[in-house]
Design a protein that fits this description.
Layout lengths: L1 E8 L3 H8 L2 H7 L3 E6 L4 E10 L2 E15 L3 E9 L5 E13 L2 E13 L1 H4 L2 H26 L15 H10 L2
Helix pairs in contact: 2-4
Length: 174
């Protein structure tokens, strides 16, 4: 599964960079994150509980940062084991670009799942991954934007609105 996207954050690039490297900020933004601990300058250990369709699992895993280019971006990769639910592994390239008073965070991610998760089907996995990414970036923007004293900025016009969000707005006007 491949995902690309961008999020406009109401904070300077230096503030966003610091937040991307702050375990406390990441922990509160990652959906289902129970623990996130830095084990070295470039490695972290995580425990995340998620539900994907009918499968609930607690994943334990390792996250590694590489190609670090402060304050412009890095590559993040990781893998986690969810017991009988299976495994997940993947990575992303994250780039930060000045955007007026804020910062544009761009990402290109790839992920792979196996075990019971893989049996659920690509559509469910893709939609769940996009939902989780959306939740992460919304929370990250709120936490980092609020912490910098900036007002919330609207999403970048280049960011595509998902089909579920469009349907929801059409049905309920929100």
């Amino acid at each position: 599964m491949d995902m690309t996207g961008e999020e406009r954050i109401a904070a300077s690039r230096d503030v966003v960079w610091a937040a991307l490297n702050d375990v406390a900020v990441l922990k509160q933004c990652i959906p289902g994150c129970e623990s996130l601990e830095k084990t070295s300058d470039t490695d972290m250990a995580a425990r995340v509980k998620l539900q994907v369709g009918p499968v609930r699992a607690a994943f334990t895993g390792k996250v590694t940062l590489s190609d670090i280019d402060p304050p412009n971006g890095y590559r993040i990769s990781g893998e986690g084991q969810g017991g009988v639910a299976g495994y997940a592994k993947g990575g992303a390239v994250v780039r930060l670009v000045d955007d007026g008073a804020g910062t544009l965070l761009k990402y290109e991610a790839k992920a792979d799942v196996g075990g019971k998760l893989a049996q659920l089907g690509g559509r469910l996995i893709d939609s769940t991954a996009k939902k989780l990414a959306g939740e992460f970036f919304q929370k990250f923007g709120e936490v980092v934007g609020a912490g910098s004293g900036g007002a919330s900025l609207s999403p970048s016009p280049a960011r595509k609105e998902g089909w579920l969000r469009r349907l929801w707005r059409r049905l309920f006007g929100r």
